[in-house]
Write a structure and sequence with these properties.
With about 290 residues, the chain is α/β, with parallel strands linked by helices. The protein has ten helices and seven strands. Helix 2 (about 50) links the parallel strand 2 (about 35-40) and strand 3 (about 60). The longest helix has about 35 residues, at about 255-285.
Length: about 290
């Protein structure tokens, strides 16, 4: 199998050497020879850059400034040589031995992602994660327990054709799953456990709650806006219709009733426009 391994790095001096060493040992155990390891240094400010220079058999890509996790993956994907991309974090959480569980599914799936068992993550993200999991079930009629695990295999050409949709931050993992589901591509989730985070600093801050809310709104507007606009429009139209019937019995149609009915129609029309814009944005990838 041909494999390009992408490891985004930002201030992971404590772990990066052991992470790459463990990964290389596992690749050797699996007798994989056609692979490359691309380490994307996202403008680290610690000793990460110096440590990377001492590691053999890797390709170092240095970002000119800190662009974010998603941007690092997109940069690496564009420079990757092989047909399959492997995303792997540099903080020591991922266990390379799970790679052997991923490989058999590459024959029939376009994306093979880890599904973390027993992992909850920072408390600030929990409401957003639960809502996103519900959103996946609502929009795509499928239940997924973990949409943003960073350990995954993905077909390079499928990832790149949607790259214009992907954000530069950590939410690229979630957005990738949504894009693949929307285009009816095959996704497989493989259960795994992770190590406790060892290196670097967590990027999670209180403002992540707002970031997750914006992510949810963005995902809805990008992939299935009508699934939100139609229920809201239908509810308001139903309420307006009830008021209209009542007003007719009183021989006096109120301004409030007219306002509710017009609002429901406008929301429906906005939903149609949003759906067409979202479809056009997604079709850009299909023409490239």
């Amino acid at each position: 199998m041909n494999l390009s391994i992408l490891i985004p790095v930002f201030n992971e001096a404590e772990t990066i050497k052991s992470v790459i060493s463990g990964l290389q040992n596992e690749l050797l155990n699996l007798n994989l020879t056609n692979y490359e390891i691309l380490v994307i240094n996202d403008c680290s400010t610690d000793a990460t850059a110096e440590i990377l220079k001492t590691i053999e058999n890797i390709k170092i890509i240095t970002q000119p400034y800190n662009k974010g996790y998603g941007a690092a993956l997109k940069t690496g994907a564009k420079q990757a040589v092989y047909d399959w991309l492997m995303f792997y974090d540099a903080d020591g959480q991922h266990k390379p031995e799970y790679l052997k569980d991923f490989l058999p599914y590459t024959q029939n799936f376009d994306l093979v992602s880890g599904e973390r068992i027993g992992y909850k993550g920072p408390w600030i993200r929990q409401p957003g994660k639960r809502f996103i999991n519900w959103l996946v079930k609502y929009l795509f009629k499928i239940k997924i327990n973990d949409v943003n695990c960073g350990f995954r295999l993905v077909k390079k050409h499928e990832f790149l054709r949607f790259s214009h949709l992907f954000p530069d931050g950590f939410s690229i993992s979630t957005t990738t799953v949504f894009a693949f589901l929307k285009e009816k591509l095959n996704i497989k989730f493989v259960p795994l456990t992770i190590n406790k985070r060892a290196g670097g600093k967590s990027m999670v801050k209180p403002r992540q709650a707002f970031v997750y809310l914006m992510l949810i709104f963005r995902l809805v507007m990008l992939f299935s806006p009508l699934r939100i606009f139609l229920p809201v429009s239908g509810f308001l139209f139903g309420v307006g219709l009830i008021y209209l019937i009542y007003d007719l019995t009183m021989v006096n149609i109120s301004e409030g009733t007219i306002f509710i009915l017009i609002t429901s129609i406008l929301i429906f029309l906005f939903g149609l426009i949003a759906d067409q814009i979202a479809a056009l944005r997604r079709e850009i990838s299909l023409k490239n």
